Amino acid sequence: MSNFIAVLLKLYCLWVNFLHPIAGIFSSKFGREIDRYKQGVSSLILDTMELENGMSTALPDHIADNSNRKGTWVTASAHIITAVIGSGVLSLSWAIAQLGWVAGPIVILLFSLVTWFTSTLLADCCRDPVSGRRCSCYMDAVKSNLGGIDSKFCGIAQYVNLVGTTIGYSITSAISMVAIKRSGCFQRHGHDAGCHVKNNMFMIIFGIIEIILSQIPNFDELSGLSVVAAVMSFAYASIGLGLSIAKVAEGTHARTSLTGTTTGVDVTSAQKIWNCFEALGDIAFSYAFSVVLIEIQDTIKSSPPENEAMKKATSFGISVTTMFYMLCGVLGYAAFGNNAPGNFLTGFGFYDPYWLIDVANLCIIVHLVGAYQVYCQPIFKRVEDWWFNRRPNNSFIKEGRPINLPLCGVYHFSAFRLVWRTAYVIMTTVMAMTLPFFNDILGVLGATAFWPLTVYFPIQMHIAREKIQPYSWKWIWLNVLVVVCLVISLLAAAGSFAGIVKDLHTFKPFTSVS
């Protein structure tokens, strides 16, 4: 293994020092045009930033650096908690069951520390190093700090992950809706009843809700929804935590071990290996909120400095989520042992009290309704900006007349926004119905996206901005961290691929049943 890591590190150094600059040559003509543009507008942007702190902010939205931003570290924390604490918090008992009492909590803690560290680096990269202009999305930040080639790689990783996550949330929310219906069936007919229900209708219901909420114009308007979603995440995590404590207090001793599931008893040797890898992917995906960090930071007003506010929000958000992850994972494993279900609320690790479990699943649904919007808003913005820049005077694309909505204020209607966002939600809903095992695919996306978006790009942008000398001590340990996280991500992806291969044997589109 040490030789393997050494080879990866050498290949990585070759990319950083030789191949990467050569790749940049092929885009140099675009880079020169961008540099000339930056130099031409830098003075205008700097003047704009001075106006923010002084006389006036009556500038167009695309120039004024502080236009319409009302966010604070509190609203940013709500966005982070909404993005990070997904329904996956309730599957952490399964992950710890695969890894055991020792490795499980250590892995959760290590991922939280890596995510916190790289997120603070990323928060400092939200402004262009030449002009000082804010970057409104992750791709812009990478382009400003590293160049066009890296920006394209970032865009592929980010938007594939965002699309995959929204599809996964459609599946997970439907499972929680079905769990509520099955709960009533179990209450009437007993725990041994089948009570199987098809998921498709509930995915359609979730899709209809998201079509309506997707008409929220931009990320900055999501703060209220994110606060509600964050409260819901605390609610269902607390319910799961309380039920685990109650089960442990009953005195029934579940079978646990320092190394997790037992080979030859719970699983085969091959299953043990693949499940451990998949558990790494589940935990990594649980912390992969960097995909929307720049977009969240772009909602924060400039005074106090947005990077400091974002660091405060990141520290608070990751601390809170790690505490819940530890409690739910450890106590869930203590309650269920090596037989811990993938999700002990929807997988019916608990049956009683029925009403409380139904409330928890309802909280999951409300949370995922908000989390879906947190992950799809960057997609909406990217597509809409792309079309508006090419057809700025098209009446179909630009916003129409304002409409007064009761209790909501003025809403600026856009026909293009209505059609495009509705089409996107329909697409994700159909994909969720077509691929009932998409959670395994989501594990692949999460494992592969964690490395570039949470680790590689933040560290490389930090090295570029701080002009850290190659082969200095700091440069070496930062790049060792990159390589180690790459190996972990590859192992996690391999575990998820194994799950996909297994599911393909019984794959039937539009037949997902809980």
Automatic annotation (TrEMBL):
<dbReference type="GO" id="GO:0005886">
    <property type="term" value="C:plasma membrane"/>
</dbReference>
<protein>
    <submittedName>
        <fullName>Amino acid permease 6-like</fullName>
    </submittedName>
</protein>
<keyword id="KW-0813">Transport</keyword>
<feature type="transmembrane region" description="Helical">
    <location>
        <begin position="355"/>
        <end position="375"/>
    </location>
</feature>
<feature type="transmembrane region" description="Helical">
    <location>
        <begin position="225"/>
        <end position="246"/>
    </location>
</feature>
<dbReference type="GO" id="GO:0006865">
    <property type="term" value="P:amino acid transport"/>
</dbReference>
<dbReference type="InterPro" id="IPR013057">
    <property type="entry name" value="AA_transpt_TM"/>
</dbReference>
<feature type="transmembrane region" description="Helical">
    <location>
        <begin position="102"/>
        <end position="123"/>
    </location>
</feature>
<dbReference type="GO" id="GO:0015293">
    <property type="term" value="F:symporter activity"/>
</dbReference>
<keyword id="KW-0472">Membrane</keyword>
<feature type="transmembrane region" description="Helical">
    <location>
        <begin position="476"/>
        <end position="501"/>
    </location>
</feature>
<keyword id="KW-1003">Cell membrane</keyword>
<feature type="transmembrane region" description="Helical">
    <location>
        <begin position="316"/>
        <end position="335"/>
    </location>
</feature>
<keyword id="KW-0029">Amino-acid transport</keyword>
<keyword id="KW-0769">Symport</keyword>
<dbReference type="Pfam" id="PF01490">
    <property type="entry name" value="Aa_trans"/>
</dbReference>
<feature type="domain" description="Amino acid transporter transmembrane">
    <location>
        <begin position="69"/>
        <end position="501"/>
    </location>
</feature>
<comment type="similarity">
    <text>Belongs to the amino acid/polyamine transporter 2 family. Amino acid/auxin permease (AAAP) (TC 2.A.18.2) subfamily.</text>
</comment>
<keyword id="KW-0812">Transmembrane</keyword>
<keyword id="KW-1133">Transmembrane helix</keyword>
<feature type="transmembrane region" description="Helical">
    <location>
        <begin position="418"/>
        <end position="438"/>
    </location>
</feature>
<feature type="transmembrane region" description="Helical">
    <location>
        <begin position="73"/>
        <end position="96"/>
    </location>
</feature>
<feature type="transmembrane region" description="Helical">
    <location>
        <begin position="6"/>
        <end position="26"/>
    </location>
</feature>
<feature type="transmembrane region" description="Helical">
    <location>
        <begin position="444"/>
        <end position="464"/>
    </location>
</feature>
<feature type="transmembrane region" description="Helical">
    <location>
        <begin position="201"/>
        <end position="219"/>
    </location>
</feature>
